[in-house]
Amino acid sequence: MTIAPDDARQSASHVYRAMRDVVQSMDDSLPGKFEITKEGIVHDMMSPGGPHEVTAAHISRRLERVMPDELLAHNGTPDVENAPEGITRHPDVMVIAWDDLDVEGSIDPRTLIAAIEVVSRSNPDNDWVGKMRDYPLIGIPIYAIFDPRTATGAVLTDIHATPDGPRYATRKDFVYGEDVTIGDWTISTDGLPRYKD
């Protein structure tokens, strides 16, 4: 049987809706975080609290000290979703305008100024590979990664077209202890916790 492009799109949409229903049914009953990527469902078994949450809280607070009042560095719900691409993600911190956060349901990822992730000990490829692929695809202009495993990170910007789809063209690496610039704002990385072995 031949599948026409419109049939393929409808089939992909149906699969995405089914995955979204599964994720919503598991969110309240299983620990960790579930996201839908171009590759399928990702389950991150992060433990609550500890260096992951402390890092996200520090980044949020440090950014809010230097950003204008109409923006916030939000580290709560809801998810960001691009249903046509079949992607639902939940950034650890998202830089967004208050007005763009005040919506029912998921947030349009194109309204984010930046997405910030703290690398999970249990699934680092989700942040370093999957989100590096998905975030430019859904239009998030800045992606910052903080890695408590290695006390390093990177800020990715400048989405451009490639044969494999949109990708970030510019990557600026940093080590903890250096100042890091995310968008128009520079914050310190001093004192961010690391994972203990």
From TrEMBL:
Organism, scientific name: Streptomyces pseudovenezuelae
Alphabetical UniProt keywords: Endonuclease, Hydrolase, Nuclease
Protein name, per record: Uma2 family endonuclease
Membrane spanning stretches: none
Highest taxon in the source lineage: Bacteria
GO molecular function annotation: endonuclease activity
Domain Putative restriction endonuclease: 32-158
InterPro entries reported in the protein's UniProt record: Nuclease_put_TT1808, Restrct_endonuc-II-like, Uma2
